[in-house]
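Write out the 3D structure for:
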Amino acid sequence: MLIPASEFIGLEGLTHLCAGGETPMLKSQMDVVNRFFKDKVWGEESRERFETTSLQCKEKVGKLLHVDAAEIALLAHSSEGVNLMAHALPWEAGDNVLVADVEFPSDVLPWKRLEKLGVEVRVVENKAWEIRLEDIDAAMDARTRLVAISHVSYFTGQRLSLPDLADLVHARGALLHVDATHAAGVVPVEAYHADTLVSSCYKWLLAVHGAGIFYWNRDRLPELEPPFLGWHTPLSIPEWHNPGTYTPRPDAGKFEPGNEGFISVYLLDNSLDRLLEIGIPAIEEYVLNLSGKVWEGLNDMGWEMMTPRDPNQRAGNVCFMAENIKSVTNALEEKNIYIWGSYGGVGRARVSTHLYNTEADIKRFLDAMHEIPVTHALASSYTKG
């Protein structure tokens, strides 16, 4: 493993294969929490310490995503970043937004509110669990304003090529908004291909809820202004007698209307130290090897695979279908093996490998799966041919 299980809280005695839902906490995070509480006692100096940690955290996020730290905002969660874009762009009746049918609700619902403005939300349907670039292209027209899609699907595990996706979308004159929640921290993410990008931090980034990454491509979208304002929006606090006059910050900090969730930022800053120290290329190689063994093992048993076999088209998630996923997860949990079950009643399960997993974990999981009768999921609304 790249980080021993002994460095995490609670991993002893169990096989944790659900990083796509939640990851365990590094034991070092306990020291970080104590440092935060100590830093909070110093009055104005406390705020300076918080802001210093935030700035260094953004530098690390920038390294992770291969972009300038000034283009990073730290919001409460990735859903806030999606809603930010839905409110920030000047929509017109007749515009349309493209989403995929296998997207997480937070990547779809914010755009649905635009329908009352006359904006159409077009859904690109999967084919045998695959979202194809040619189908995205076919769904676009001159009024397509934005394509909102995940780099790695939470539901199927498919990884899209950001360069190819960006070339397609930008050639059609549309904007590209990417959710990198299931990519950041496990495979390389070159965020500059997108116009905006969001990511949660409590999964592959080994942090917690309360911090979400928002990337703003200033070169491609310089006119983007914050739809939600607060004291943090201006470059400086306005004169007390004229509080309505302000000049927005030139960096992505203008999208943070108030203070960040600093304790979550402290924890993210610490986890990024470990991830960047190891290096994403090394993590990708390690995780793809493990997830490949999961894929091959499940496929050999006859489970219906949703995730592509090609390592260039997957990351840490391997998803499969079964008629009764709960019986599968219950049988595994009896052996202290944890995967992530179905969503919305659809018969799908997700096995996620990360840098604390070992080949022994994979063997233990596959051995247990050999004892579970192979079933196939009932037809669902997600299956489109």
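The first helix runs from residue 28 to 39.
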